[in-house]
Amino acid sequence: MKGLPDGTRYNLSKANATNLNQFFKMRQATLRKCIQIPITYTADGPVTERANLTTQHFNISLADVQCLALICFGTEVLAPAAIPAGPYTAQDINPENNNNDKMTFYDQVDGSVLAKLIENVLTASGYQDLLLQQDSFSFVDASSHEIHYDGLTMSKILLLQIDPCIIIGMGSIKAQLETMKMHNFGNDARKMLTKMQSKQLCT
Q: Could you please report the per-residue DSSP string of 39-106?
């Protein structure tokens, strides 16, 4: 996937947050399938809600994307399970003879394409800054020992670094607002409104 020409790429800094967010939003049609991240599950596992990584990233945690990446590379884990420290292992698959493995292979390719896009939109120094956290998105092939980068996890880490305000999700804020009671603020409406305003997103 085409990135940006040399000389027009971005450093990994807050100053470039708007440009980087816009760049990925403009490509969401191409990335449509791989950026739909499961964020809510039933007690026995099935997904009940997804969020778009390019437009709803504030609703998606790093654990959400890492969970998806681990499953894609062969490690079964259900959110919100604790994510182990990386780097991780990419289990062997047989896409030629197994239909499930074939779908997994395509998912891995989508993630690799996104990872390459990220590399090609950042400056060399910006990309090296991102690689400082490569243990969080690296998967080592069990047979060839080749290292694969998961683009979804890289995207989330990139967004967290350029725009830390998105760490707080809208769902969390909504829940906090809904549980606020006047008596907790001495029946002072002004204090309660001030607290509610402080919960707004800073994006």
A: EEE-TTS-EEEEEETTT-GGG--HHHHHHHHHHHTT----TTSPPPPS-EEE----TTT-HHHHHHHH
